[in-house]
């Protein structure tokens, strides 16, 4: 054995012995409180992506594994954040338009099944869990009232008097590929568009979560201002967490 080899031996042994990220090596384990992986489909914009949401009481490293056991996400804070620890993380994937990366591409790249998650806790305990992922994506919610247009610059913008506004939509009963769905919630959001909002925190918005069998809700007149542009949105949430946002809907108050 050469002197150079002997000199490098400690470093070579250290590299071999280095643990893989989030490796289970017999340490104590406990369940991770929240592990979610779901699809968001924006039917109006014609794009979709995969979102992840994981939460616990504190960790220094988190890994996500696909159903085959291959690691696909590794989150590892450094320096001050590693010492302090993180308690939760949420991410959104890029959401390509359907023509670049559509529903069939998503099903190929993200097969249905159990996605394992491991997080190294601040005390060394390994937090483990499973995000159950399905490709059942709800069809688009269709708004039936009030009358709206799909673009803020569309001709024939409806002018609506300021009063209590009854928003209604059709039930969502199938997925985008015709499978049955179990809609557990709708989210209704109304946002004032013509509002100066330099720090993106003060734009007037009305948002409410409703049960999965809801087909309407009354937005109180007190939310609206006169002569203002609003965007209306209805989102359908399936039991899996997968969700579809309906097309953009705009109107103006008198």
Shape: elongated
Extended strand count: 16
**Fraction of residues in β-strands:** 35-45%
Count of DSSP helices? 3
> What's the CATH class of the largest domain, please?
Mainly Beta
Give the arrangement of secondary structure elements:
Layout: H1 3-17, E1 29-31, E2 34-42, E3 47-65, E4 71-75, H2 79-84, E5 86-92, H3 103-109, E6 113-121, E7 126-133, E8 143-145, E9 159-160, E10 165-169, E11 183-192, E12 205-211, E13 216-219, E14 229-238, E15 243-245, E16 249-253
Parallel strand pairs: 1-7, 2-15, 9-16
Antiparallel strand pairs: 2-3, 3-4, 3-5, 3-6, 6-7, 8-10, 10-13, 11-12, 11-14, 14-15, 14-16
Protein name: Fibronectin type-III domain-containing protein
Keywords: Signal
Signal peptide: 1-19
Explain how this protein is built.
This is Fibronectin type-III domain-containing protein. Keywords: Signal. Residues 1-19 form the signal peptide. The protein is mainly β and 254 residues long. It folds into two domains: 21-133, Immunoglobulin-like (Sandwich); 143-253, Immunoglobulins (Immunoglobulin-like), CATH 2.60.40.10. It has helices at residues 3-17, 79-84, 103-109; strands at 29-31, 34-42, 47-65, 71-75, 86-92, 113-121, 126-133, 143-145, 159-160, 165-169, 183-192, 205-211, 216-219, 229-238, 243-245, 249-253. Strands 1, 2, 3, 4, 5, 6, 7, 9, 11, 12, 14, 15 and 16 form a 13-stranded mixed beta sheet that branches. Strands 8-10-13 form a three-stranded antiparallel beta sheet, with no helix packed on it. Strand 14 (229-238) and strand 15 (243-245) form a beta hairpin. The longest helix is centred in the N-terminal third of the chain and has 15 residues, at 3-17. It is elongated and about 65 Å long. The model is unreliable at 11-17 (pLDDT under 50).
